[in-house]
Structure formats: structure tokens, C-alpha cells
Amino acid sequence: MGHHGEMVRVSSGPLSVEELLREYAVGPGPSVRANFVTTLDGHATGGDGLSGSINSAADKQVFDVLRALADVVVVGAGTIRAEGYGRLRTEDAGLLAVRRAAGRSDHPVLAVVTASGDLPEKVVSPEDGAGDLLVLCAEAVRADLADRLGADAVVPCGTDVVEATRALDALRDRGLTQVLTEGGPHLLGSWLQAGVVDELCLTLRPVLVGGTGPRIVEAAAGADALARFDLLHALEVEGDLMLRYGRTETS
Ligand SMILES: NC(=O)c1ccc[n+]([C@@H]2O[C@H](COP(=O)([O-])OP(=O)(O)OC[C@H]3O[C@@H](n4cnc5c(N)ncnc54)[C@H](OP(=O)(O)O)[C@@H]3O)[C@@H](O)[C@H]2O)c1
Question: Which residue's alpha carbon is at the smallest distance from atom 36 of ligand 1?
Fold first, then answer.
């Protein structure tokens, strides 16, 4: 039983894309979800400092389904630089059809969060047939970014940092209501502190990597928990657990 007495769905074995789309469906209203992968010893990266080295085929399938259900994918500039992000593209024909049937653009918009304005050329340069770019930035770097990208692609959301509520309001003003963030840990920390994360989708990989790499949240610890979540489902595929959590509603 889940926290409020609802059944928590637990399944074992591979699921079809159709089943995953159902498992991760969200309602029509605005939603903010985060998708991360972690090892059994709590690391968000492998020894190479990247999350690609700790993910798996089952995790990738969920990653793709979550993108297909999103209007916009929000990513911190640290992750953009580390993981070499370019514009987003829906490669899979089935997922493209799902987006079209839902009235979404073919590809999710990529929204990059940055205070410094330090964005690699790979993400700045438009790619034929790929999704649009929005930059959610601090005021000081707005003018430089607007010169580089055009004023429409640049949204100032705070003086020194990007305030989560301003960023989400700006996305909703543009009709981007189903929001997915793929990290990284500093961005997730600031969004948890702002209380804006409705859901956490977490893949738990059965490996231990050691070392001192980041965990999924980089934020100062306080006396109280940063956030509390209820388990919505647990899907097991070849030892990986794909866990979906919803923020605990406090009454
Ligand atoms: N396991 C996973 O699922 C997962 C997911 C994502 C990333 N990662 C890993 O995490 C590592 C990167 O960690 P990270 O914490 O540096 O990632 P991050 O949160 O993506 O990057 C931090 C940077 O993003 C910008 N940023 C984030 N929040 C901001 C805010 N509220 N206001 C203004 N700017 C903000 C800033 O960019 P500027 O410096 O440009 O100002 C900041 O320096 C990489 O090794 C990556 O592989 C793992």
C-alpha cells in the first residue's frame, strides 16, 4: 500500500513502450518531474564522471518515454557541458507518433539553466529538424546571450541565480506545461528547495562504484528533509529498479 492507501504497482520483467507510457502518464495540468539514475552506493556518475557509464537499456527506455511525455526538458548548464548535450530530437517513430497524437511538437524544447552564460557551441548552434533551445539565465548574462541566440530564446529568471518559480512561470507562459528535468544535482537541489518538484523518477542500478562523485542532489542539508515522496510504482527489469515517486502532500 502507498502512503495514502492506494496500491503501489510493482512489476517484474520488461515492459512494452505502451505499458511504460501508461505507467508514466501524467494528468492534463502542469507538472514538474525529475529523472535521475543512481547506483546502490548513491552515486550519480560512474568513475568517468558521467551518468552514461551507470545507465542501462531499461533505464534508457524510461528516459526516452519520459522525454516523449514532456513539452520541455530543463537541464543545468553543468550537465550540458559535462554530458555534451545538443538539441533534442525524437528519434523513435512510435514515440514521435505519441507526441503528435498528444498535440505536442515533434521534439521537446531544451531549456538550459545558467548563471554564467557559458554554453558550448554544440547546444547553441541550431540543428536541422531538432527541437528549439531556451536559455533560462541570470540577468547579468542576458544581453550577451541574446546577441548569440536571439532575444526570444533568452529568459532572465533572477538577479544572480535562476529562480525556479520564475523559470517555470516563463515556460508555462510559452505553453510548456509538462516539464521534465534531467538534472543535474545542483539544479535538482535548487528546485527541491523551491518546492516545485512534483515527481521524482529514479532508476536504481545494482552496482557500487565508490569514489567521491556527485549524488543526485547537491544542496545544503537542513534540519528538515529537503522533500518527501511517496512511492507510486516500482518496475524491475534485469535487477534495475525504475521507481516513480510523487511528492508527499502535506495537509
Ligand atoms: N545521475 C544522473 O541522473 C545525472 C543527471 C544529470 C547530471 N548528472 C551528473 O552530474 C554532474 C553535473 O553536476 P552539476 O550539479 O554541476 O549539474 P547541474 O546542476 O546541471 O549544473 C550546475 C550548473 O548549472 C547551472 N545551474 C543549476 N542550477 C542553477 C540555478 N538555480 N541558477 C543558476 N544556474 C544554475 C549553473 O551553470 P553555470 O555554471 O553556467 O552558471 C551551475 O553551475 C555531471 O557529472 C553529470 O554527469 C547525473
Answer: 114
Give the pLDDT band (50/70/90) at residue 219. Answer: very high
Of 3.60.110.10, 3.20.20.70, 3.40.430.10, 3.40.50.2300, the CATH number of 9-247 is 3.40.430.10
What is the maximal distance between C-alpha atoms in the chain? 54
pTM score, whole prediction:
0.97
Domain boundaries, the chain: 9-247
Nearest CA to ligand 1 atom 17: 184
Distance 112 CA to ligand 1 centre (A): 10
Q: Tell me how long the chain is.
A: 251
Query: Buried b / exposed e across 203-217, counting CB within 10 Å, b at 16+?
Result: bbbeeebeeebbbbb
Kindly state the average pLDDT of the residues 185-202: 97
User: Which residue CA neighbors atom 22 of ligand 1 most closely?
Assistant: 78
